Amino acid sequence: MNRGRRTTSRFAVISLTTTAAAIACLAVVPGAGAHGTLNLYGKDAIANKTGTLTLTIPHGCLPEGAPTTKMIMQLGSAWQAAKPASVAGWKSSVKRATNGQRTLTWIATGSGLPNAESGDFPITVRWPKKAGTYNTPTAQYCGSQLMDWKDPFNAAADGDLSYPATYPVPRVRVLASAARTPTAVTGSSPISLCPLDRAPRQPRRS
Predict the structure, then answer these.
(1) Closest CA to 146 of 60, 57, 43
(2) Where do the segments described as Disordered lie (predicted)?
């Protein structure tokens, strides 16, 4: 009888430990993007070459969760060309100022992008001639509500800036040459998940 209780207790401990390990592993899995993001989908941006930059809007305007109806992106004078691709339900335009800065605008022709849906807005570009990291300030409108993604990047909190930024500016890294192989479809770092198909080892008891 006592032996049966010990066996039951042992399996209960293993089950609880496995559950705790699973929860710990899930905690490291990144969730859906919480702000306007840029995607290259596995193809690096190479200086002075053409490519596709995709603006991704993962949700509507918080906290009300209203649908997105308009976006405006600013590209500096270093960008040599930019043309939004056609997206169903949206009309787009590009204006170039005398200083070379480009303003890309998308306006919904219907009800817009629902709060619970993510939308991709590809842009055919010629990357800047010089390698570096480039900001692309982007304004997301949900009717009259604005989420302005332009807060400067800060590596850590200091006396002037918080971390992370409330509305971080989308940024893209342009490389001098194609000498690197992206590590995933989106070019992000790979994530190692904990093996949950077996229970973690228990410490041996004397």
Answers:
(1) 60
(2) 185-206
Residue 195 lies in a domain: no
Q: Given 3-state DSSP classes, what are the helix, strand and coil percentages for the chain, each rounded to the nearest 5?
A: 10, 35, 55
pLDDT of res. 178? 79
Establish if 181 belongs to a structural domain.
no
- Strand, helix or coil for residue 31: coil
Looking at the fold, whether 127 and 43 belong to one and the same domain comes out as yes
pLDDT score of 122: 98
Same domain, 24 and 69: no
On whether the CB atoms of residues 50 and 95 are closer than 8 A, the answer is no
CA distance 186 to 159: 34
Residues 47 and 178: their CA atoms lie apart, in Å, by 9
Residue ranges of the chain whose pLDDT lies below 70: 1-35, 179-206
Cis peptide upstream of residue 164 (ω within 30 degrees of 0): yes
CA distance 74 to 172: 13
In a domain, 198, yes or no: no
What pLDDT is attached to residue 184?
47
Check residue 107 and give its pLDDT.
Answer: 98
Are 26 and 41 found together in one domain? no
Whole-angstrom distance, CA of residue 184 vs CA of residue 168? 23
Parent domain of 82: 37-175
Instruction: Specify the pLDDT at position 23.
Output: 35
